[in-house]
Write a structure and sequence with these properties.
29% of the residues are buried. Strand 2, helix 2 and strand 3 form a beta-alpha-beta unit. The protein is α/β, with parallel strands linked by helices. It has a seven-stranded parallel beta sheet, sandwiched between helices. It has a four-stranded parallel beta sheet with strand order 10-9-8-11. The model has no long low-confidence stretch (mean pLDDT 90). The longest helix is centred in the first third of the chain and has 15 residues.
Length: 343
């Protein structure tokens, strides 16, 4: 007699940034192939931009989380994409207020497990009130995570991996930043450690043992919990017919183009844009540079760059305003370097 395996229902709660939602979605794809039904929870404005591939539509289900609209933070700002930097603390405050809505979702959808992001310490408390386990998922690199946790838990010790260290002049500044309480409540340190403490016995991490084994083991020792690598979770590049950027890349030599991008949450100052532009110009390398501006600041791209820059680099450099197909650009054989914020 054939037995039917019970489908496990997993509710996923990432922070409202595409750099966080992406790894959660890739993990959802992996789990959905192993008899898991995924409920991917985010704000309506984020869901309007999340494309779930057709083959996963029956196993990955979007669930809307209703974030309160605080003064100056209308629904279109319930995402970090294009969010003016000064509104980031307010967005975190609003997200912290979604606990009752998350509780309603759990009561209604009856998941067996909550997988939550590393800045949301209230989420596992909501899960516990419904009697379900909650596991913290970190998409931050294992080496970086090991240094952050070491600096919190064993600051008087020497970090065992000398390849990862801060210069003396940066250590005090770094520690004051992570320990400082913000407008949105607890400090980053408090949020991270509460998430870890309330994670049910283990931590999921976006990495793999062959690359980061020593950092995974060190983190497990620091935290007193098993750190479980869930793989690199590399996004499948989306094919786009007729995209001029890829037609341009096809004409370049292998591995001789650099991609420059600083994520969805950081907006370069005028001085930083100037310095990067001059660096790219002096380097004489081919490049693609993705430049982003806050939604509320309509800026002309040409005026935002040094005068004559676009003309001087014409032929070997392309500047994209806004979103760029990062996964596909990095997968292109002509791209051999990546300059990023390492977020």
């Amino acid at each position: 007699m054939a037995t039917t395996r019970r489908t496990i229902r997993v509710l996923m709660l990432p922070w409202l940034a595409y750099g966080h939602i992406g790894p959660f979605l890739e993990l959802a794809k992996k789990l959905s192939k192993r008899n898991f039904h995924i409920l991917l929870c985010s704000s309506p404005v984020n869901h309007s931009s999340i494309e779930i591939p057709h083959e996963y539509c029956s196993t990955i289900e979007p669930v809307e989380l209703h974030v309160p609209s605080l003064a100056g933070l209308p629904p279109q700002y319930h995402t970090t994409r294009g969010l003016p930097p000064h509104l980031m603390p307010k967005l975190m405050t609003a997200f912290d207020m979604t606990g009752p809505n998350l509780s309603d979702i759990i009561a209604d959808r009856q998941p067996n497990l909550l997988i939550f992001d590393f800045l949301l310490p209230w989420a596992p408390e909501v899960a516990r009130s419904h009697g379900i386990p909650a596991v913290n998922f970190s998409s931050v690199a294992a080496g970086t995570s090991s240094y952050v946790i070491y600096s919190i838990k064993r600051p008087s010790d020497e970090h065992p991996f000398r390849a990862i260290r801060l210069q003396d002049q940066w250590i005090a500044k770094y520690r004051s930043q992570i320990e400082e309480a913000s407008e949105s409540g607890p400090s980053t340190t408090e949020r991270v450690m509460r998430c870890i403490d309330h994670s049910s016995g283990l931590i999921f991490m976006k990495t793999f043992r062959e690359l980061k084994g020593k950092y995974i083991d060190y983190l497990s020792d620091l935290l007193g919990k098993k750190v479980m690598p869930v793989g690199p979770l590399v996004q499948d590049p989306v094919q786009e017919d007729g995209n001029h950027i890829f037609e341009w890349l096809d004409l370049k030599e292998r591995s001789l183009t650099v991609f420059v991008s600083f994520g969805t949450e950081y907006f370069l100052t005028e001085k930083e844009r100037e310095e990067i532009a001059y660096g790219l110009e002096l380097s004489n390398v081919n490049f693609i540079w993705a430049v982003k501006f806050p939604v509320e600041e309509p800026i002309n791209l040409e005026e935002a760059l040094p005068e004559g820059f676009l003309e001087r680099v014409r032929g070997r450099g392309r500047v994209i305003e806004g979103w760029a197909s990062q996964a596909r650009i990095l997968a292109h054989p002509s791209v051999g370097g990546f300059v990023s914020h390492c977020g």
